[in-house]
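A.,

Following up on our hallway conversation. Structure tokens first:
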């Protein structure tokens, strides 16, 4: 076993649902987690950055556990790993932090043993672990992912995001556990609401595929999950209802929340006014928010060269990536 070999992976964040596409539509965003992994005589977990507070630093760590699944499936017995993690993706905010960790662990562990598992096998494993394919699909393959899962096998189609799309990401200061956000959803919904979501998600996918951005404001509406989650996020309903009036293409709860994503035409002259509207509205609700202008990320998880020691000079890395149009914060 080569204990000197180290694999470093860069994994994008993701936003899921985009309104009506509950558990089926995901989009990769240019906000990243970096994972470095190697075999070791003793398991060591190194965490860097404020976004990883509370993450396990022993074998209960999610990345360690997922990596072991890869090794087990490949028939490799190696109980000890050294793992270093840095992330710009905030935890429990609806930006796919767990999905990026799962995908990063799968890619890194697979690369560590010379990639015996196919991309499809990794996607199936990621979906089973995450329990839905949208976030993991976006982080694994990049771009826009339209997917389904029958509990046994997941399928997906990748769509190139329209280059005009820009995303105002609104991150409230409080965390919202995915399970809490899911527990508030009803066991059954009225038949008209089901039809409403099927029609809107279909129109949304068609609009994204054809570049008809003007249709997003009509398509990006939902009756399946967002109405039930408004009680968990004060001020959310107003943003969803009024963002278009302030220059947005559409707005949605990102994943289970509490982050909101507001889709914008990057050439819009209303971007500053839109951001001011969002911030001031949440301020009236006594909620502090952080806003980031992000782009759809075209690339999924990548094994990257080790140009710097870990923890590498992250500001330098951001600067280099920004010059290539890969990173925005």
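Then the amino acids I'd put at each of the 329 positions:
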């Amino acid at each position: 076993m080569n204990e000197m070999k180290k694999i470093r992976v860069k994994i994008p964040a993701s936003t899921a649902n985009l309104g009506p596409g509950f558990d089926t539509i995901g989009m990769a965003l240019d906000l990243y987690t970096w994972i470095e992994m190697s075999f070791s005589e003793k398991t060591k977990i190194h965490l860097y950055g404020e976004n990883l507070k509370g993450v396990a630093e022993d074998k209960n760590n999610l990345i360690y556990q997922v990596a072991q699944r890869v090794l087990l499936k490949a028939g490799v017995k190696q109980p000890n790993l050294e793992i270093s993690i840095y992330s710009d993706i905030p935890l429990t905010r609806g930006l796919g932090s767990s999905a990026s960790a799962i995908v990063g662990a799968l890619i890194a562990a697979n690369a560590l043993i010379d990639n015996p598992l196919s991309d499809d096998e990794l996607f199936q494993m990621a979906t089973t672990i995450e329990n839905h394919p949208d976030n993991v699909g976006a982080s694994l393959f990049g771009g826009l992912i339209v997917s389904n899962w029958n509990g046994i096998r997941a399928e997906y189609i990748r769509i190139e995001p329209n280059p005009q799309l820009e995303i105002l990401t609104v991150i409230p200061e409080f965390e919202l556990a995915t399970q809490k956000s899911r527990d508030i959803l009803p066991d059954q919904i009225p038949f008209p609401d089901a039809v409403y979501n099927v029609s809107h998600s279909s129109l949304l996918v068609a609009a994204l595929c054809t570049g008809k951005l003007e249709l997003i404001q009509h398509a990006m509406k939902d009756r399946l999950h967002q109405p039930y989650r408004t009680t968990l996020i004060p001020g959310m309903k107003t943003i969803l209802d009024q963002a278009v009036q302030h220059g947005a293409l559409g707005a949605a709860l990102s994943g289970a929340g509490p982050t909101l994503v507001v889709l914008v035409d990057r050439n819009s002259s209303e971007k500053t006014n839109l951001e001011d509207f969002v911030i001031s509205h949440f301020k009236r609700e006594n909620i502090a928010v952080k806003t980031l202008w992000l782009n759809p990320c075209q690339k999924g998880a990548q094994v990257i060269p080790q140009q710097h020691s870990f923890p590498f000079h992250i500001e330098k890395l951001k600067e280099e990536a920004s010059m290539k149009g890969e990173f925005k914060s």
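The chain has two domains: 6-160+301-323, 165-294. Curious whether your intuition agrees with the design.

B.
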